[in-house]
Amino acid sequence: MRGKNVGIGMPLKWQYPIRYGEETEVSADVLVLGGGLAGCFAAISAARKGLKVVLVDKSCTIHSGAAGTGIDHWMGCPANPASKITPEQYTLSPIETFRGGYGNVIATYIMARDSYDVLLELEKMGMKVRDTEDEFKGAEFRDEKTKLLFAYDYENRHCIRVWGTGMKPTLYRECKRLGVNLYERTMVTSLLTEGGKQGARVVGATAVNTRTGEFYVFKAKASVLCMCTPERLWIFSTEWTGLVGRDGPPTNAGDGHAMAWRAGAEFTMMERSTHEEWGGSTGIGSIMFSSGSSFATWFPCSIVDAHGKEIPWVDTEGKPISTISQRTHPAPGQDFFSLVLGGGEGGTSSVPCLIPDLAERVKRGEFALPLYADLPGMPEHERRAIFGLMVGQEGHTWAVYRNLTQAGFDPDKDLLQVYELSPAPPGWRRLRYGGLVHDWDLKTNLDGLYAAGQQIFDGCGASHACSTGRWAGNKAAEYAMRADKPVVSREQVHSEKARVYVPIERSDGIDWKELESGIAKVMQDYCGDTKTEELMNIGLKSLGEIEEAEAPTVCARNPHELMRVLEVLDILTCGEIIIHASLARKASNRWLSFERLDYPEDDPPQWRKWVTLKLENNEAKVGELPLNYCGSLKENYEAHKK
Amino acid sequence: MVESKEYAAPNLVTPNKPVIFDANVCTGCNRCIEVCMSDVFMPNPEKGKPPIILYPDECFYGGCCVKDCPLHDKGAVRLNWPLMQRVRWKRKETGEHFRVGMLNPPPPNTRPPA
Prior knowledge:
The complex is a heterodimer of chains A (about 650) and B (about 110).
Chain A: E1 23-33, H1 37-47, E2 53-56, E3 73-74, H2 87-99, H3 105-125, E4 149-150, E5 160-161, H4 167-177, E6 181-183, E7 186-193, E8 202-209, E9 215-225, H5 255-263, E10 267-268, E11 273-275, E12 303-304, E13 313-314, E14 320-321, E15 353-354, H6 358-363, E16 371-373, H7 380-386, H8 397-406, E17 414-418, E18 429-431, E19 435-436, E20 449-451, H9 462-482, H10 490-505, H11 512-526, H12 533-548, H13 559-584, E21 610-616, E22 619-625, H14 633-641
Parallel strand pairs in A: 1-2, 1-9, 2-6, 9-20
Antiparallel strand pairs in A: 3-5, 4-5, 7-8, 8-9, 10-19, 10-21, 11-18, 12-16, 13-14, 13-15, 16-17, 21-22
Chain B: E1 19-21, H1 31-35, E2 41-42, E3 52-53, H2 64-67, E4 77-79, E5 88-91, E6 97-99
Antiparallel strand pairs in B: 1-4, 2-3, 5-6
């Protein structure tokens, strides 16, 4: 009797105590906001210095964040003993070749230098990072001395395959062991600044419990913002799966971006978004890596057509390659496979891939649909590494391995269907890692505010998150040790409290889902695949109208809905940042996947710079930074490492 | 006369059954509630019973509720992929077609992950 199916129709009494408006004040030396990989590492490194550390997490720290359900690749690890390339090569070459210089050199270099050490720390904490059982003994991608398993580039060996489903539980336990004070199911709603002034020193944050509605005021000498890139901007429907049409968890609403923006923090790269490339997967919002594929977790799996004919591959220069081995070895004279994360549109792939004109060749009748991943045709070690290690460890795939094998799928015998030929509809885009501007300390423009992981611009990947988290945690701790006592403005707390609770006082307005869908439509229509001044001005006007008309009517019936409402208000703010940033760059730029119809010239010299943006007196203020503002890599790294 | 089973209720959200609990196995320990990143569950008002799936439309299919369940191998909770996500495969040698959720499925592959 589905009518009795509580939760889908029948109201149920809220099972947690309701404490709206009740206020708890908590003091910390270092306050970490966001409990993903970066946040946990920031908390751990600050706690090791003996400071009082508070970590606030909207979700459950054991599985929160973009890597909460696991990761399979530890990328950006040229400092491991088997690597044939240096951290300097790893940092500079790909950013030049595949990003036209538009990359975050500071953070990439910190990752390249530190990520192996960070991995060893994770191993010490209890995470499995090498093939200790010798299951892959003799495999071409295994270093027999260290038992590390490599991925993608078997020659240069800078990307390590890891048992990453254990990463978050390991970090969670370490946080507990070190006495980090965890506030879980607690959504941070704003940063508190000295005197309540935009642009002033950050002295804490406010938060609300997502089950009880209780209010928190956190006071801190230093704060580290470690939240995720906003994932719910252009694409939204809960009728697909799980709030987002993409791989990031639904918690990735952009809260950190929105609160930093309101506090006056400086952003860059917010104009960079890419067209969603996986629209044709098994239903929009597919369960990642549950179907056949040739890339990422499934790299370098062969793909065959309906009649068993193999789909050809090309190398990083677009030249045809014929053997499986060539997919994992650069051709003589070719640079290493750089694994640039963050996607592109029509650019060269940084690793070998299937022929780029596959869809056209299918239409011409050269290959018959459907396509399949040919695991049985792969060498045994590769097959087991793809389906058994990578599928099994990457986000979602512990369950993918379990569900598929329980349903009888056998990688030794079966061809798994590939579903990802067609692109997503027009305007369906994904923000590509715009975030906070920072210096070599990973400090933002605001005193007392440090940032790591996807919170900083061009931040992506687990090893990046952990390495920058550790760095930022150390720097925030150093600052906290010499900083003055934080003084919170009661006026700022009061006005934030009023903003946070007003949705529960309303009873007849719009719900969060409709509001979020409306914002997504504006982003698709006015800040979509091609942009013009006129379109984006309408977009900004539309978001402003929503802010004035519908947003002030949005209702919440319990603390969980209140969390969603506050998220959508943050999404609205993020949409505004993105359109402001897109208006500010008056030039097309293929490296940023940024197409302006009214400024078609690609990457003209006068626009080869970072366009920055921040709020000053509540007005968006545009600035700029040279692309190479990092200065000398080695010198700065050494000077700031201490 | 058969007793009326009609209810005046809004449409269900889709998908609406992301996980399936076996009430005969689940002890209502609520571990799954604590490890769900989207917080889709609500404790059952009746102690010892499986949680209520309050927000099925917010499930991210990460599978933590299953993975961290102390009784997952006994089937206390399983992840129920929506129909549109139930992928197909073909046996290379024989050309037979299969899919997740089919009637009369092949026997499970019991090999554990690496």
